[in-house]
Amino acid sequence: MRQSLSKESLQQLFTEARTHHTWTNKPVSDDTLHAIYDLTKWGPTSVNALPMRIVFVKSKQHKDKLTACVSGSNVGQINEAPVTAIISMDTKFYNYLPTLFPAFDAKAMFTSNAAASESTAFRNSSLQGAYFMLAVRSLGLDVGPMSGFDNAKADEAFFKGTSWKSNFLCNSGYGDDTKVFPRGPRLSFEQTCKIV
Ligand SMILES: Cc1cc2nc3c(=O)[nH]c(=O)nc-3n(C[C@H](O)[C@H](O)[C@H](O)COP(=O)(O)O)c2cc1C
Fold first, then answer.
1. The model's pTM
2. Cα–Cα distance between 42 and 165 in angstroms, integer?
3. Which of 20, 33, 106, 110 is 20 to 30 A from residue 98's alpha carbon, by CA?
4. Residue 74, domain extent
């Protein structure tokens, strides 16, 4: 029978987890990146479409390419983080649907409907980006998500001539706990939820 996670696990995933802007130099192995994806992929997406794609940027060459698309303090954050994930989406995700969702011909819903493909890719890659962040935290690493960049420029630099598009960036590694920003408050249940 499934049980609630331990208090410590809930703290690590949610209540004590912080967004990190400063990173220690502890490296992140490629095996860890595989382990992160192998948890992330189990999160649900509509028609099991799995539209998220990730480019893990580790090398100086590709960090330079990425920071050219980024402004302000985000440049330093990318340069310091051991890895920056470009959380992206494949707008032609539907090509995998015959394998991923054999129950019916779901591919046909998207091939001639660009608006449906775009919204499905964006919604579900955003969800997968959230699963990604929880997967990173569940393995004991930290995240620093960022949307302060020029998506069109990044798409030109990394995905030219492909059906992939960037969604948001996520620095990952082992954050410096002494340098987190002051914790922002959260809205209460009463402010955000209704039970009807
Ligand atoms: C999608 C997204 C985009 C963000 N963009 C940036 C950004 O461009 N630069 C930055 O320094 N922080 C960015 N943040 C960090 C948020 O400000 C931070 O997660 C939020 O204030 C909560 O902080 P906490 O997790 O420490 O409570 C972003 C977070 C998310 C989820």
1. 0.98
2. 22
3. 33
4. 20-178
